[in-house]
Amino acid sequence: MKIYLSSHKIKEIVAEFAQQLKVQPEFDCEEGMVSLPKSVGIGVIKGLSFPFGLALLMVKCELKDDLKIKYQPHDFQPLQFLFSLKGETFHSIDSDFIQYGLSPLQGSITASKKTCDQKITLPANQEIQLCSLQINREAFLKKINCDLDSIPEKLASAFRDKCGNHSFYYQSNYSFAIAECINEVYSNTHEGLVRKAYMESKAQELFSLQVKQYQDDMMSEGNRILLRKNDVALIKKAKDLLLKDLKNPPTIKALSKLAGINEYKLKKGFRTIYSTSIYKYLREERLEKAKLLLLEDTLNIEEIASKVGYSNKSHFARRFREKFGSLPSEFVKRFQSEVL
């Protein structure tokens, strides 16, 4: 199925979706919604407009057939921030040979020439959640023009190109901060004025986070500090390497090299994923391993302390009591009495 959009104004986009899907749209002030007919699939398309040309378009659906959304040439092309939460999305800008796909946790910033068509394809038979932050550059420039010198020139030029003389394309795995913000956009249950204010604040937050990520991506790989999807796999790899040898674990510096991630990202990302520092995580795992070894009753306490990386038996005993409420020797006696 194909949907043709001649406007970039959110209310008109929602109305055009409704007309071509042959359903009735719902409007509440600056927010519009279309529920998909059963013949097309299940789901909704929502749009909200905010001051200074900022708008959100949110798609949440599962389709029976591929849906191709075609934006026709227009004198005022918006700058578009796309964020994929679930499912695959394909985007192309004709005549500029820009074609790419977005997987979950990937985003893009694009702008089309006013002479170009744009196509967004949503594949069938998969759950899709796609969020689009659309920026009317002519209106938005009134708000940000004096600050554009603080961002990379290529992106600043894309904002200044309000007449759509050039295309722009950038794609990346988006940060955890962006992921959390989008989840909050989709999951909020506010109503009325509170909802409008909340959604506007989230649109502004998405804008600032994506610009911040663009700046981060322009740095050399070793100096990037924002945590992305591919970083998660490296941090989990670092965790496995850390636990491989509890007696002689690598230093954080060595661990970052072994895992292939810079130290700052490793430490920050580890805390984000595991809610603790690398050092504290290692200590907890050592003590958990020591408890299991004590229960097996095949090694004495000094041997167990050494096996999990404690050269000082007293230090080990103190840490064990802090975590489990008793000294290792008391723990063993209590366990044996309970068994008997």
Can you characterise this structure?
This protein is elongated. The mean pLDDT is 92. The longest helix has 26 residues, at 192-217. The N and C termini lie far apart (72 Å). The strands form 2 sheets. It has an 8-stranded antiparallel β-sheet, with helices on both faces. 45% of the residues lie in helices and 24% in strands. Strand 2 and strand 3 form a beta hairpin. It has helices spanning 10-21, 137-144, 153-160, 176-187, 192-217, 229-244, 252-259, 263-274, 278-296, 301-307, 313-324, 328-339, and strands at residues 2-5, 26-28, 31-35, 41-50, 54-63, 67-71, 79-86, 89-93, 98-102, 106-111, 118-122, 127-135, 168-173. The protein folds into 3 domains: 2-218, Jelly Rolls, CATH 2.60.120; 223-275; 285-339, Orthogonal Bundle (Arc Repressor Mutant, subunit A). By secondary structure, it is α+β, with helices and mostly antiparallel strands.
- Major beta sheet summary: 8 strands, antiparallel
CATH superfamily of the largest domain: Jelly Rolls
Instruction: Compute the number of helices.
Output: 12
User: What's the shape?
Assistant: elongated
Q: Which CATH top level class of the largest domain fits?
A: Mainly Beta
Q: CA-to-CA gap between the ends?
A: 72 Å
The amount of beta strand, in percent, is 15-25%
The average pLDDT value, as a whole number, equals 92
What Rg do the Cα atoms give? 27 Å
Output the strand order for the largest sheet: 2-3-4-5-12-7-10-13
Q: Assign the CATH architecture of the largest domain.
A: Sandwich
SS-based class: alpha+beta
**What count of domains describes the coordinates?**
3
Strands, count: 13
Query: What share of residues is helical?
Result: 40-55%
Order of helices and strands: EHEEEEEEEEEEEHHEHHHHHHHHH
Unreliable stretches covering 5 or more consecutive residues: none
CATH names the topology of the largest domain as: Jelly Rolls
